[in-house]
């Protein structure tokens, strides 16, 4: 049985997004950032967890800055404004519950 391969998207300059796995209840997504790229401030109804696979990032969650590096993680509750700045090129592995249908 072959698993589906999802396309790589470029939602912002210096950012690539690829869905790794999904079901209606949960989605796993890779975000690859170039140094200096930003994940624009936004909010959504999904609960999100972010794991820094490599690189360094400054996250903004509900107006508070958090500096994260490889091995760190952060949970973003539903409806909270958040975004990030990439301080050193890297990759984030994000999980969303429920699935982000807008990413499919």
Automatic annotation (TrEMBL):
<dbReference type="InterPro" id="IPR052535">
    <property type="entry name" value="Bacilysin_H2HPP_isomerase"/>
</dbReference>
<protein>
    <submittedName>
        <fullName>Cupin</fullName>
    </submittedName>
</protein>
<dbReference type="InterPro" id="IPR025499">
    <property type="entry name" value="KdgF"/>
</dbReference>
<feature type="domain" description="Cupin type-2">
    <location>
        <begin position="31"/>
        <end position="88"/>
    </location>
</feature>
<dbReference type="Pfam" id="PF07883">
    <property type="entry name" value="Cupin_2"/>
</dbReference>
<dbReference type="InterPro" id="IPR014710">
    <property type="entry name" value="RmlC-like_jellyroll"/>
</dbReference>
<dbReference type="InterPro" id="IPR011051">
    <property type="entry name" value="RmlC_Cupin_sf"/>
</dbReference>
<dbReference type="InterPro" id="IPR013096">
    <property type="entry name" value="Cupin_2"/>
</dbReference>
